[in-house]
Design a protein that fits this description.
The protein is mainly β and 368 residues long. A hairpin with a 4-residue loop joins strand 8 and strand 9. The longest helix is centred in the N-terminal third of the chain and has 17 residues. The radius of gyration is 24 Å and the shape is elongated. The protein starts with a helix and ends with a strand.
């Protein structure tokens, strides 16, 4: 083999190594869904299915569309899941209202872009998309430095209905404002015409009227219309490389920084904590976090009549809900938990807190 060939091969290998770990997006393949995969109604709130990707709405007055995790994926790309949104029959908005798929990232994870400096870098966002409604859609790249929000809206075209298409969009860095707090991406799905006043391709101060361009179709208000997305990647530079497939375990750990599903709404008598009776009425116990969470999490639970139970000294008492102890928490490793209603045991006895109802669920939320 010639020296020239050896040097060429080394250059090729170096390029491939440089690309490893280049994706700034978590769960871009939609493989993690700690909150569940089944279809759920959008209504007026922010709804998660795939971790890190939520359907966000502003000034919505009604929306009976749905979102879910789907197994419909582009062929031959190594994906097994996508995020799906379906338009509803009753969708309405107030002034400047919108619906979008939203990804939120911590500013510290995007520091290499150098926003707010003279050396601000271009980033390239790539993804696979499929919709029953063709047209020119808007992707809004948003950033915030603690006081000023900036938008850069790009357009991409879905050319053929119900067909997976690969898109890549390059966005120039913004020299005027950093992204020290966060960066967000909005794949717009439609809404009131008032939010469609953006001009594509330039950074502007954020406002409700410039979230999308006037070309944005109202897919979300088309009853039964569908929109799928997967393979989301964001890289520094003006080139899109092949999608970086991470292991399930790696992606799970990254997602658990923002949401930790401690006990899912499935199965009976799932263990939550082991602890001890502080007095005759209340068990105290510690839930360990598998990773350091972004901030002090809030407790999220599905509770109801006798949804949980405490086992102690050979007997059990049913309870409705649990709570965190506000003075004894840490985002780094644990939360202290106790029951919210009195039971009848003996102080100092070992005890377990478990689910009693299959519908009960316990999670910790530290989302942006």
């Amino acid at each position: 083999m010639s020296l020239a060939r050896d040097i060429a091969d080394l250059g090729s290998s170096a390029t491939k190594l440089d690309a490893v770990g280049s994706n700034l997006i978590i769960n871009g393949a939609m493989q993690l869904a700690q909150r569940g995969t089944s279809a759920t109604t959008l209504s007026g709130s922010e709804i998660f299915r795939a971790d890190r990707f939520r359907v966000e709405q502003g000034s919505v007055t009604a929306n009976n569309g749905t979102t879910e995790v789907s197994t419909d994926v582009p062929s031959g790309q190594g994906f097994t899941k996508s995020l799906k949104v379906t338009g509803g029959s009753s969708v309405s908005y107030g002034a400047n209202g919108y619906t979008a798929i939203n990804y939120r990232g911590e500013g510290q994870d995007f520091s290499q872009i150098s926003h707010g400096t003279s050396s601000a870098k271009t980033v390239t966002i790539s993804f696979w998309v499929k919709s029953s409604v063709t047209g020119t859609y808007s992707l809004n790249h948003t950033k915030y430095d603690g006081s000023t929000e900036r938008f850069n809206v790009s357009e991409y075209t879905i050319s053929q209905a119900n067909t997976w298409e690969y898109k890549k969009i390059s966005v120039l860095g913004d020299t005027s404002v950093s992204a020290s707090d966060w960066i967000r991406l909005y794949w717009h799905l439609g809404g009131d015409s008032g939010h469609k006043g953006a001009t594509a391709g330039s950074w502007v101060n954020g406002a409700a009227t410039v979230r999308a361009t006037s070309n944005q179709p109202d897919m979300i208000s088309t009853n039964g219309a569908t929109f799928f997305i997967t393979g989301v990647q964001m890289e520094v530079g003006d080139t899109a490389t092949d999608f970086e497939h991470r292991s399930f375990g790696d992606e799970l750990a990254r997602c658990q920084r923002y949401f930790y599903n401690c006990a899912a709404a499935s199965g009976l008598e799932e263990h939550i904590i082991s602890g001890a009776m502080y007095d005759a009425n209340y068990i105290y116990g510690k839930i360990e976090f598998p990773v350091t969470m972004r901030t002090m999490p809030s407790l999220v639970q599905t509770s109801g009549s006798q949804y949980f139970q405490i086992y102690c000294a050979g007997s059990s008492n049913a309870i409705d809900s649990i709570t965190m102890l506000g003075s004894a928490q840490s985002n780094e490793n644990f939360a202290m938990v106790r029951n919210t209603q009195a039971v009848s045991f003996t102080a100092g006895q070992a005890a377990n807190l478990q689910k009693k109802s299959a519908s009960a669920a316990v999670a910790f939320d530290a989302e942006l």
